[in-house]
Amino acid sequence: MNARTYRIGQIVPSSNTTMETEIPAMLRAREGILPERFTFHSSRMRMKKVVKEELEAMDRDSDRCATELSDARVDVLGYACLVAIMSMGHGYHRVSEKRLHERTVENDAPAPVVTSAGALVDGLRRIGAKKISVICPYMKPLTRLVVDYIENEGITVHDFAALEIPDNIEVGRHDPERLLDIYQRVDRSGIDAFVASACVQMPSLPIIDRLEREVGVPVVSAAVCTTHQMLDRLGLERRVPGAGALLGGGY
Predict the structure, then answer these.
(1) If you placed Cys at 249, which of 5, 42, 84, 239 could pair as Cys (CB 3.0 to 4.6 Å)?
(2) CB 202, CB 18: distance < 8 Å
(3) Is 65 a catalytic residue?
């Protein structure tokens, strides 16, 4: 009997170069140990600078993207921009997920919708995290907005690093190995989990396992959490090798 193939749809900022590499990398690694197979399909929203005005304009484009992806009859749809959702107000991931799912229903191709913002919050809850520290690539005002959003969901952000990289292409070029030095500048006392990248554009997958061993608590990223929630929505085992504790099979 052949293993089923699932179609993974992603709504991606036009300047994002990471979600179409990290999520496929995780699911390809999973294919090495579990039977399911995956194909990957994207639709893009225009965005070059990570500023509130561009994020708001981009979010309005997400309805079109959801409709386009449902034309391909994807099995799950992921909104791959955490800060765009969080910049729209507390709890907005629930509004976005419901609205984009409605676009797929209207197109006679209903698919569950995951947002990286909602997935990060959900992933932290799954591992029982009440107090975390975070690395963000954003300018400080947007970083504080992300911190406030997470705290409004009942999770305390003990400390954070804001790398202040405004150009989204440059965020995607940030060397993940640098995170192994940057995390040491972040206060981690008493935390339950560490977020290596609260941004789906800042690469972190290659260092998740190593950072987890160094920090001594579960380490996640927005991409790791998005993959976890996509597998959850598909009803599949949420296990990926080399992607940290959340995808270790225990959650």
Answers:
(1) 239
(2) yes
(3) no
